Amino acid sequence: MKNQSAAQQRSPFAKAMLAFVGIALFLGFMALGTWQVQRRAWKLDLIERVDQRVHAAPVAAPNSAQWPHINAASYEYLPVTAQGIWLDKQTVLSKALTEAGAGFWVMTPLQQPDGSQILVNRGFTPEKMRAEWLKQIAEAGPSGETVTVIGLMRMSEPGGGFLRKNDGSTGQWFSRDVTAMTESMGLKHPAPYFIDQGVPAGNPAYTPPDANADVLRPGMTVIQFSNSHLVYALTWYGLAAMVVGAAWLVRRHHRAVAPG
């Protein structure tokens, strides 16, 4: 009959495909919701860990004997202090996008008395200063002045940025990849972490930015993190529920129009 319903006209293959799509969507939405729940737990742990650490008094940076045991869960964002001599000639600039705009992180190794080196993020500099920094790096000579660095301990950021890979041969850095950077600098005994120079207000070692903050601004580590994972999780679970509801309506309609 020409007035047969769409439900009656569907072939078994079409019905099977519709069921397959529905199941796939349901499982996909449920998986995404569960992933967001897991991300929320990870984010809450990160927020708690950072809040506990960033305002603590700085301790000595881990020495080479401790390096094999370093991990993000135990050490990241820990306020530390280190002494040494700047290896200004080995400075590199890493792309940065901050609350102050686009620019670069100024990454300089600190030569320690025991012969090891720690890579230090000395702060943020705007894009307009790139040429000036490259000139300073090229003209830098040996430094004999011992300095004390106070900052937050950070883990390496391997690889690069979104769709952009680090390239040490051309000086293109899109992430603070400690291994790649120190290899390009020719360092013999580098630490597996880096230090973000500067600590947040409220830390006993906090010092306000100096008059050269527009040229080099330390203390810009992000220590406040958004946490919208619960909203995302509820959204994905809601979509999964909508798939179930749609399947029920389709099934109900099919039964209503089915003959006999």
Structure description:
The mean pLDDT is 87. Helices cover 37% and strands 23% of the residues. Helix 3 (72-75) links the parallel strand 1 (59-60) and strand 2. The protein has two domains: 15-47 and 228-257; 56-197, no CATH class. By secondary structure, it is an alpha+beta fold. InterPro entries: Surf1/Shy1 (IPR002994), Surf1/Surf4 (IPR045214). Belongs to the SURF1 family. Keywords: Cell membrane, Membrane, Transmembrane, Transmembrane helix. It comes from Comamonas resistens.
Q: What's the gist of this structure?
A:
By secondary structure, this protein is α+β, with helices and mostly antiparallel strands. The chain has helices at residues 6-9, 12-53, 72-75, 130-139, 178-185, 229-257; strands at residues 59-60, 79-86, 92-98, 101-111, 117-126, 146-155, 160-161, 164-165, 190-197. It has two domains: 15-47 and 228-257; 56-197, no CATH class.
Ranges where pLDDT stays below 50 over 5 or more residues in a row are none
What is the helix fraction of residues, given as a range?
25-40%
* Termini gap: 16 Å
Quaternary state of this entry equals single chain
**Count of alpha/pi helices:** 6
Instruction: Please state the CA-atom Rg, rounded to the nearest Å.
Output: 27 Å
Q: What is the helix/strand order? A: HHEHEEEEHEEEHEH
Average pLDDT rating: 87
What is the structural class?
alpha+beta
How do the strands line up in the largest sheet?
A: 2-4-5-9-6
Content of β-strand: 15-25%
Morphology: elongated
Task: Give a short account of the largest sheet.
Answer: 5 strands, mixed, barrel
Please tell me the total number of domains. 2
**Number of β-strand runs:** 9
Subcellular location: Cell membrane; Membrane
Membrane topology: Multi-pass membrane protein
Organism: Comamonas resistens
Main location: membrane
